[in-house]
Amino acid sequence: MTVHGCRNTSEYTHPxxxxxxxxxxxxxxxxxxxxxxxxxPDREDYxxxxxxxxxxxxxxxAAIARAxxxxxxxxxxxxARDNDPEGGVRGGAHNQTGAAxxxxxxxxxxxxxxxxxxxxxxxxxxxxxxxMALVLERLxxxxxxxx
Length: 147
What we know:
147 residues, alpha/beta, Uridine Diphospho-n-acetylenolpyruvylglucosamine Reductase, domain 2, 2 domains, four-stranded mixed beta sheet, globular
């Protein structure tokens, strides 16, 4: 992510040598506004979200917002709208193309947004964006046996 014409930029160097220029105050504000974590290349937990199903993909983002709910997603989208980085969304399942990881961009990581609420009476399930189909199938089957 490159912010042009800004003073006060800070450079974070990715372990593989990728450099992203970030508006330091904007990054601090986004980080402080999230219930989850904003992971930058200089932080210890940066490598974990880079592990995608397709091991050939190597597009290290400038920042990864590890969302813990819809408010974190909305704040990250607002930040992206205001700062214009390339963006990606990482859910909980496989993505063969690795499109969730964007080189020098901003990734919203939804793996922690995995709530499932089932109403057997109404036969309705509300499912978080990172939940796996197998887990949902097991819960629905279990709910049907009890219901």
